[in-house]
Design brief:
The complex is a heterodimer of chains A (152) and B (371). Chain A has a domain of 99 residues. Helices cover 21% and strands 36% of the residues of chain A. Chain A has three helices and eight strands. The N and C termini of chain A lie far apart (52 Å). Chain B is mainly α. Chain B has a domain of 245 residues: ABC transporter involved in vitamin B12 uptake, BtuC (Orthogonal Bundle). Chain B has 14 helices and four strands. In chain B, helix 9 packs across helix 11. Classes of the chains: A alpha+beta (152), B mainly alpha (371). Chains A and B meet through helix 1 of A and helix 6, helix 7 and helix 14 of B.
């Protein structure tokens, strides 16, 4: 079967659009990262006295022990810079991590002590599962009336 | 003699641009009454030009092809909304989210555009009313998909989007993750007024595309079809195909326009966002001095400025004059319908006058030939 030149252009255009869509799906995937400065049981790590966390988009989170911060970012990996003090009198230390996140997770919990101690991903990273808000069907009545006076 | 000629020129200018002049007068009266500062009005107008221009520009191509004002642009708006709902559920944010929504809207817009174009070819001469009624028909299908298929057949995961019963989309979908992402890209502030540079660049690119498209073979074909279908057919142009292409292009562009419009708004009214968009875009274009068979890029920008100026000042002027802002609200909606009616009457009157003049000239020529 011979493919004409115009048909070839059409196929190439469709392929280019599909590739663009795939790229957009990867680079535009939004995630919320939750940063926990909390103690961990297994393996056992205690929370730091103080951490300053800088996420990709320069949202600095100042977290004391047992606190949680959050930030949003797009893409499949995030650069996290942590400046921490183990105790009140210890020296400030800074470390930078590049964390790859699973595509399907909307929310990601990062345990900072486990991350800093070089634990594997399965230890420092877990999925944040949002608790659905209990609402009855009667609470939201669908309005399909198009004759509404609205601003444009 | 010279003075008379100037007066007749002025009269002709007024007669050909009655609607824009009428709006200039309305705005000139309402602006001082509303009490808004010039800075506020300028900021609002810039926002609204950026938000609406792309949608209104999508109307130009069918006018070029002689299909009148494309009330069927609402179909494209629905396609854009479906793209945005899916993208919101997939959590694709910002500009990539907008681009992906546009890509999703393309096949839906093309399909709807082809259906609309084919039906319009069957209802030749009555394209506008056909397009208008098509909106209601496709709106029913849109609601069927959004209200019942999404969540049940089309997977929708997020509880913030889906209705508590487990299927159907909520009345409002938040687009916070892409709110003004295009407007804020390269935006500059000038005297406290935000200028969404990137949005204007996108609008300018569409203007350039329209100017370029007019000069292409297909653009010339559309103009020929718009002037006289029979002559175009005799010249070997596939009239039906050309008309369908013009509607498909308009529908696809309307889908893109709706996405640009909604990213500025930051939320999507799932069941009502598209319902009046066609009406308001057409009214804005007509306010700019366009007619059913003639419209330019200049008409788009003049129209969007005057129409939205009226939209901004009317409620406040209504409050000052009548003590009730709802008077102004009703006034602006009533005016947009009135403008369309007025423009259609003007077009019909002009057409009849031209036909009658042509008939008289022909009769005169025949009489002289008989002599």
């Amino acid at each position: 079967m011979k493919i004409s030149k115009s048909m070839l252009y059409k196929i190439l255009t469709v392929v280019a659009i599909l590739i663009l869509a795939a790229v957009m799906m990867i680079i535009g995937r939004g995630h919320t990262i939750y940063l926990d400065n909390k103690a961990l049981d297994n393996p056992s790590y205690s929370a730091y006295y103080r951490t300053d966390v800088d996420v990709k988009n320069n949202e600095v989170q100042k977290l004391s022990a047992r606190e949680r911060g959050s930030a949003t970012f797009m893409g499949q990996s995030v650069k996290v810079t942590v400046t921490y003090m183990e105790t009140k009198n210890s020296q400030k230390q800074t470390e930078t991590f590049k964390i790859k996140v699973p595509y399907g997770w909307d929310g990601i919990i990062i345990n900072l002590p486990a991350l800093i101690h070089g634990e594997p991903k399965s230890v420092y990273m877990s999925q944040f599962i949002e608790t659905p808000v209990e609402t009855s069907a009667a609470e939201e009545v669908v309005v399909t009336d198009e004759f509404v006076v609205s601003d444009i | 003699m010279k003075e008379k000629s100037f007066a007749s020129k002025l009269w002709s200018l007024f007669r050909n641009n009655t609607v824009p002049f009428m709006f200039i007068v309305i705005c000139a009266i309402c602006i001082p009454i509303s009490g808004f500062s010039l800075n506020y009005l300028l900021a609002e107008i810039i926002t609204r030009i950026a938000r609406n221009s792309f949608l209104i520009l999508s109307l130009l191509i069918p006018i070029m092809a002689g299909m009148g004002l494309n009330f069927g642009m609402t179909l494209g708006a629905m396609a854009g909304e479906i793209g945005l709902i899916l993208v919101s559920d997939w959590q694709i944010w910002g500009i990539p989210g907008m681009i992906l929504a546009m890509i999703i809207s393309i096949p839906i817009s093309v399909l709807l555009g082809v259906i609309c174009g084919k039906i319009m070819n069957l209802a030749r001469g009555r394209e506008m009313i056909t397009g208008y009624i098509m909106n209601y028909f496709i709106n029913g299908i849109y609601q069927l998909i959004v209200l019942y298929a999404m969540g049940a057949i089309i997977p929708i995961v997020h509880s913030s989007i889906i209705l508590p019963r487990g299927y159907g989309i909520r009345n409002t979908v938040s687009l916070l993750s892409m709110r003004q992402s295009l407007d804020n890209l390269l935006a500059i502030r000038f005297g406290g007024i935000k200028i969404p540079v990137m949005t204007f660049v996108v609008v300018a690119l569409l203007c350039l595309f329209i100017v370029w498209f007019r000069k292409t073979k297909l653009g010339q074909d559309m103009r020929a079809v718009g002037q006289d279908m029979e002559v175009a057919r005799a010249a070997g142009i596939d009239v039906e195909r050309t008309r369908i292409i013009s509607i498909v292009m308009s529908t696809v562009l309307a889908g893109f326009g709706m996405i640009i419009y909604l990213q500025n708004m930051g939320n999507l009214s799932t069941y009502t966002a598209h319902s009046q968009i066609g009406m308001f875009c057409i009214a804005a274009l007509l306010v700019g001095g366009a007619s059913v068979d003639r419209a330019s890029i200049g008409n788009v920008f003049l129209g969007v400025t005057l129409f939205h100026l009226m939209f901004i000042v009317a409620p406040s002027a209504g409050t000052v004059l009548m003590g009730d802002s709802m008077i102004g609200e009703y006034f602006r909606v009533f005016v947009s319908y009135a403008v369309i009616t007025f423009a259609l009457i003007m077009y019909e009157t002009k057409k009849r006058r031209t036909n009658s003049l042509a008939g008289r000239e022909l009769a005169l020529a025949q009489k002289e030939a008989d002599k």
